[in-house]
């Protein structure tokens, strides 16, 4: 049984305006979310501070009660998030304060919590600390890594194919990164080095899908010189559609399993990857190649060949 018929002929190019309108809406929403939140929710990897994982052996508690119990420590900023399932009764506590001794702050926090929850009811599972200077450096290097990856891909595609195709690929990659970051912002997910790794993976996955379509466009241009450029692009997208959908579907199923059963450590990574996968698949079909048609029509000012 064939998932997608080999002779399928969907007019993707004819729906350029619809595709670009949808992309524009999502980009505007994404940028608006980041702006309204005053930026993305930076983790301690980038801002500096302490991240302490705590398990409670007492009755079920919540973030509000934990913050109240830690009020005597007078933290300038404190963020409490549930870690794992509710039955685990574990929480991640992020504060802006750091200590010269790693166990110092964690021990003080344990003692303070046990005043409210009782002796021997609190376990410190892990404690991480990052200085503000190190955090700023990691943030700068993370952003630089994404920019360097996109620029490198641009030159690679321009060298292997041609400039107008490289332009379409870069527009699609920027499109994918912005929307993925926007959805992370809307969901108020924490940004750290793991999310930077996810974004770089999304960039790599998306360009791989795009290059497959571009390779088919180049091949079809050589075979059918008499057809219009739009027809060649549309034919190429349709011919690679089965590969695109099946590859994305199998990857999605794996990521979904990681998201559901992988635990809190890689939860945000899997979430970012799922969003990036969906957006990247969409952009490979409705953005990367169709934008080249727009370039052909408007920028070059040439009639389609």
Task: Write structural notes for this entry.
This protein is an alpha+beta fold and 305 residues long. The chain folds into 2 domains: 13-43 and 134-299, Multidrug efflux transporter AcrB transmembrane fold; 49-130, Alpha-Beta Plaits (2-Layer Sandwich), CATH 3.30.70. It contains 11 helices and 6 strands. The chain has helices at residues 16-36, 44-47, 63-69, 102-117, 132-160, 163-186, 193-223, 229-239, 241-261, 267-286, 288-299, and strands at 41-42, 49-56, 78-83, 90-95, 122-130, 190-191. The strands form 2 sheets. It has a 4-stranded antiparallel sheet with strand order 3-4-2-5. A two-stranded parallel sheet has the order 1-6. Strand 3 and strand 4 (90-95) form a beta hairpin. It is elongated, with a radius of gyration of 24 Å. The model has no long low-confidence stretch (mean pLDDT 84).
What brief labels describe this structure?
Multidrug efflux transporter AcrB transmembrane fold; single chain; alpha+beta; elongated; two-stranded parallel sheet; 305 residues
Q: Low-confidence parts, pLDDT < 50 over ≥5 residues?
A: none
Q: Separation of termini?
A: 36 Å
By DSSP (H or I, 4+ residues per run), the number of helices equals: 11
Order of helices and strands: HEHEHEEHEHHEHHHHH
């Amino acid at each position: 049984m064939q998932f997608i018929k080999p002779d399928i002929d969907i007019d993707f190019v004819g729906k350029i305006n619809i595709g670009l309108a949808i992309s524009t809406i999502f980009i505007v929403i994404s940028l608006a979310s980041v702006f309204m939140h005053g930026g993305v929710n930076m983790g301690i990897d980038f801002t500096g501070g302490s991240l302490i994982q705590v398990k409670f052996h007492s009755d079920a508690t919540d973030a509000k009660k934990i913050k109240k119990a830690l009020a005597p420590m007078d933290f300038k900023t404190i963020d409490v998030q549930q870690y794992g399932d509710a039955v685990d009764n574990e929480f991640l506590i992020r504060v802006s304060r750091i200590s010269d001794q790693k166990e110092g702050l964690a021990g003080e926090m344990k003692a303070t919590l046990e005043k409210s929850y009782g002796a021997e009811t609190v376990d410190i599972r892990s404690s991480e600390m990052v200085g503000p200077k190190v955090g700023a450096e990691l943030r700068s290097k993370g952003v630089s890594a994404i920019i360097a990856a996109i620029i490198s891909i641009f030159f690679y595609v321009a060298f292997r194919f041609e400039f107008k195709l490289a332009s379409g690929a870069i527009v699609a990659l920027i499109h994918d990164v912005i929307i993925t970051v926007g959805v992370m912002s809307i969901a108020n997910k924490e940004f750290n080095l793991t999310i930077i790794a996810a974004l770089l993976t999304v960039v790599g996955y998306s360009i791989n899908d795009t290059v497959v379509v571009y390779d088919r466009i180049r091949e079809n241009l050589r075979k059918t010189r008499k057809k219009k450029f739009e027809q060649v692009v549309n034919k190429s997208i349709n011919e690679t559609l089965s590969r695109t959908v099946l590859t994305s579907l199998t990857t999605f199923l794996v990521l979904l399993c990681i998201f559901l059963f992988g635990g809190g450590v890689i939860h945000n990574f899997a979430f970012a990857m799922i969003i990036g996968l969906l957006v990247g698949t969409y952009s490979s079909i409705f953005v990367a190649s169709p934008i080249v048609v727009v370039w052909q029509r408007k920028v070059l000012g040439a009639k389609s060949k």
